[in-house]
What we know:
Elements: E1 6-11, E2 22-27, H1 35-44, E3 61-63
Antiparallel strand pairs: 1-2, 1-3
Amino acid sequence: xxxxxxxxxxxxxxxxxxxxxxxxxxxxxxxxxxxxxxxxxxxxxxxxxxxxxxxxxxxxxxxx
Length: 64
């Protein structure tokens, strides 16, 4: 993508043990991916086992 801006925050795993040791990076704009690329990505990860959690004083940072 032309715009590589992203959000970053420290969070936790979405599956047990739900450890708070993850640095999440979320792109500002969606990135295009083909169906085979999505299927490959999904093969590495399983469904979320945890509902949305409160922010708990975490800072969400934005980088351009």
